[in-house]
Design goal:
The complex is a heterodimer of chains A (458) and B (147). Chain A contains four helices and 18 strands. Chain A is α+β, with helices and mostly antiparallel strands. The interface between A and B is large, with 45 and 42 residues.
């Protein structure tokens, strides 16, 4: 208890002493109040003047920004625009009340200027996007090579680059370079397309160069783009020339193409004329540097996409050409080809069918006229990333027709295939296919294949 | 010093949090409403097209409006809304459609702006340009359609 009382007394003494010590200060503080109020009033006046100055500065910056960016969004206007101080004329020659507020305002103005410059610079950057390079690539494996059933195991598909440089408002260009393996494994480099064009109107572009021959649908829609094609490989009957195709997949010449939107739907058309192809060592050759006899191919393709049925397309195509082969007899054949195709491509379905008929005439011999036909049907269902598909193709070629007899892949066949595509992401896909092929005349044989492919685009 | 009991502290915390929470919710709903509010498809005043042309313009099927070459640009900040409302497709299908178009016809896909301000500045810069934004554009551009 004694100790408690002693402690309490000590505390009381300290409190009294502290109060006594503070008393003179409080008296002095009261005496200085009047002087401090006067100082604050002075500072307040200076602050008001500084606000006036800043308001004027903001207005000046706004007018500059408007000059740089006419019609800029009004939402960028500073909130001070309607303040009462803004009604007063701007003060001049008065220093800012506090350096901090002046710095902040300058930084804000500088930031606004920077944002405007960056936005303008980004918008201007679209004017020169350089030269975009795109392409496709695919590799695979299987019980047999998809291009040569006599080989087995893994295979390199192709690497395809294409460029579409912007050369002017109406000047168009398209270049495509392809690297692929031949059926024997040799590297083949091909200048797939070199097209220079001029867009005469919205519905008309005239191309000159080497292009994908616009017959049917598949050849121009997918060609080397394995990643954009649902199936693992092209139907054999519309394969590339060196991969077993019997149609000239490429033409060197003139190509007039376009599309016209009408009330009922959209009409597309292609008209072309170019060097007649020839057959060299059993393969169709495009005659890239000219036709030996000046013969030509003429053709066209027209399709209609009705407004009422989204995704549906029906078309007709035809071409005529004179083809010489390199057999000892040097046969010359008038090849007349007529095609019809139907496509139904929606979010769920990708169905297509093509049918071709040949009415060929032997111009150099006496075998007369020959009729052949070929076609395929493919049905695919898009179930998210999974796309199962089925295809049936059939080719019935007249083997007394020199055009088919001279071609290495000119034998008749039919093939059934079931496949499954899985989209790994937007730009890559895995595909599996099992197929059974029946060779029906030149050689009679049946073989099965189980194939896998990994295809990308970039 | 008085220590509040747990329920009191909870109530106090709730009271203090209520105002910011309500403000945040209000702002969020306003933001969502604003975002869903509108899409302005804009073109340079030199362009004479209608809303029914937009699908063809942004898929590369229509490249000229009279003598004026059309130059569409995507706006990544509003692309999902645009694709859904105007083209009726998702981004994957849009990319594939352009890959096919570019590969077949040699037409380049639209360039891409990253914001409304950039898209607006891009459209104003030269004749023939079109894009889309989520805020009212003000003067200097032609609003072809609002969604």
């Amino acid at each position: 208890m004694l100790s408690l009382n002693s402690h309490a007394r000590s505390l009381c003494c300290i409190a009294v002493l502290a109060m006594m010590a503070c008393a003179p200060f409080r008296t002095a503080h009261a005496a200085a109040d009047a002087q401090q109020v006067a100082q604050l009033q002075s500072q307040l006046e200076q602050s008001l003047k500084a606000i006036d100055q800043l308001t004027a500065r903001v207005r000046e910056l706004e007018s500059r920004m408007d000059a740089v960016q006419p019609g800029a969004a009004p939402g960028t206007a500073p909130a001070t625009a309607g303040s009462p101080a803004s009604a007063a004329p701007p003060a001049t020659g008065v220093a800012p009340a506090t350096p901090a507020s002046g710095t902040a305002d300058e930084r804000l103005a500088s930031l606004e200027g920077d944002v405007a410059e960056i936005t303008a610079a980004n918008a201007a950057r679209h004017d020169d996007m350089g030269l975009p390079l795109h392409g496709f690539a695919d590799v695979g494996a299987g019980t047999r090579s998809p291009n040569n059933p006599d080989l087995h195991g893994a295979d390199v598909g192709s690497l395809d680059f294409y460029l579409t440089p912007e050369l002017g408002e109406r000047t168009r260009s398209l270049f495509e370079l392809n690297f692929k393996m031949s059926t024997t494994g040799a590297l083949v480099t091909a200048l797939e397309r070199i097209q220079l064009g001029y867009q005469l109107a919205d519905a008309t572009t005239l191309w000159l160069g080497r292009f994908h021959t616009p017959y049917g649908y598949y050849n121009t829609a997918f060609h080397h783009g394995q990643q954009i094609s649902t199936s693992l490989r092209r139907p054999k009957l519309v394969e590339f020339e060196a991969s077993g195709g019997v149609l000239p997949a490429h033409t060197v010449g003139l190509w007039l193409a376009g599309a016209k939107r009408m009330e009922m739907g959209r009409l597309t058309y292609d008209l072309y004329a170019g060097n007649a192809q020839r057959i060299v060592a059993g393969v169709i050759d495009t005659n890239n540097v000219g036709s030996p006899h000046g013969d030509a191919i003429y053709g066209g393709n027209v399709s209609f996409l009705p407004q009422a049925l989204d995704g549906f397309r029906v078309g007709l195509s035809a071409f005529t050409t004179k083809v010489e082969d390199d057999l000892v007899a040097r046969n010359l054949t008038r090849v007349n080809n007529y095609g019809v195709y139907v496509v139904y491509d929606t979010d769920r379905w990708e169905n297509m069918a093509e049918y071709y008929r040949f009415d060929n005439d032997d111009l150099s011999g006496s075998t007369g006229s020959h009729n052949s036909e070929m076609g395929y049907v493919q049905i695919a269902y898009r179930a998210g990333a999974w796309i199962p598909y089925a295809r049936y193709e059939n080719a019935d070629f007249d083997q007394t027709d020199n055009y088919f007899a001279a071609q290495r892949s000119g034998g008749s066949y039919f093939r059934t295939a079931l496949g499954l595509r899985y989209d790994l992401d937007w730009t890559s896909a895995l595909k599996l296919e099992i197929a059974e092929t029946h060779l029906t005349d030149r050689a009679t044989d049946t073989y099965e294949e189980a194939l896998m492919q990994y295809a990308i685009r970039f | 010093m008085r220590y509040a009991s747990r329920p009191e502290r909870a109530r106090s915390l709730l009271r203090r949090a209520a105002l910011p929470l309500l403000a945040t919710l209000a702002l969020a709903s306003f933001s969502v409403a604003s975002r869903a509010e509108g899409l302005y498809v804009i073109c340079h005043p030199s362009v004479a097209i209608s809303a029914s042309d937009l699908r063809d313009v942004f898929l590369g099927e229509k490249q000229f409006a009279g003598p004026v070459r059309l130059v569409p640009a995507d706006n990544s900040s509003a692309r999902a809304t645009f694709l859904q409302k105007v083209l009726g497709m998702d981004y994957a299908k849009y990319l594939t459609a352009w890959t096919k178009k570019s590969f077949r016809d040699g037409v380049n896909p639209p360039t891409v702006s990253s914001s409304d301000a950039e898209a607006l500045a891009y459209v104003k810069r030269a004749p023939g340009r079109c894009s889309y934004i989520t805020t009212a554009p003000g003067p200097g551009v032609l609003v072809v359609a609002t969604f």
